[in-house]
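In the design runs reported in the main text, the only information available to the sequence generator was the tokenized backbone. The following block is the verbatim input for one such run; it is reproduced so that readers can re-run the procedure and compare outputs position by position.
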């Protein structure tokens, strides 16, 4: 999961720098938590009160809807 944390941090920095592409493709071997990383990043992007580190709040409407996907 350490690699996913690094990837998330890189993606969040790219977003913070205003260089986020219009699409992202998460590829890798089975069992590398690609979906978890993609969901965490999408939740952070949609969160209404995202922290500076990219952590979603978990309580705003967007976060609640994401949990019930």
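Verbatim output:
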């Amino acid at each position: 999961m350490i690699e996913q944390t690094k990837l998330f941090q890189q993606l969040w920095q790219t977003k913070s720098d205003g260089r986020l592409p219009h699409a992202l493709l998460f590829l890798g071997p089975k069992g590398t938590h690609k979906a978890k990383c993609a969901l965490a990043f999408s939740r952070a992007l949609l969160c209404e009160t995202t922290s500076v580190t990219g952590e979603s709040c978990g309580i705003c409407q967007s976060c609640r809807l994401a949990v019930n996907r």
